[in-house]
Amino acid sequence: MLVKDLDLSWEQEARWEERSDLDGRFKLLAPAELTHKVDTVETGMGKQAYHTFFLQAPDKDKAENIIYAISYVDYPEGTLHHDSLDLVGEFLTGTEEEAAIAVGGEVIYASDKQISGYPARLWRIDYPSKGGTASARTLAGIAGNRYYELKVFSLQASGLNKSADRFFDSVRIFKL
Hints:
By secondary structure, this protein is of the alpha+beta class. It has a single domain (20-173), classed as Protein Transport Mog1p, Chain A (3-Layer(aba) Sandwich), CATH 3.40.1000. The chain has helices at 10-13, 85-103, 162-170; strands at residues 17-21, 26-30, 35-43, 46-56, 67-74, 106-115, 118-129, 132-143, 146-154, 172-173.
């Protein structure tokens, strides 16, 4: 169900507040409190701690987006750095392509961006869901050896929406 123009979405009714994490070295605006979860994953570079802060809309039928999330992971020294623009560009483009494959979707748009002066990439993937086509929007960036990823999931392929824009536009990364 799409949010009607006359009805306010959950996000429009919510009181957006600044959320921050000193260890994550970020702050942003979100329509509700974020839950923090840490997953440790064994990779070719050893164990990686993936930190995710997320919230799910309380009423998916009244939401522009059903999930908001920001994640970060620190890569070992020397494996990735924001000053290596070619390497960062390849890494972000590869991440975008892997994300599309993972959900069986299609990249609708992608563009290079910056987050607090650090290199980043924004993309949208539309993918099949039970209700038709859903969307995942991602803003990913590299600061030092840290990879950040903001995600917003929508049940409908609705293109850009003001709440997703507000979430993405508000993120600030503290100097690493």
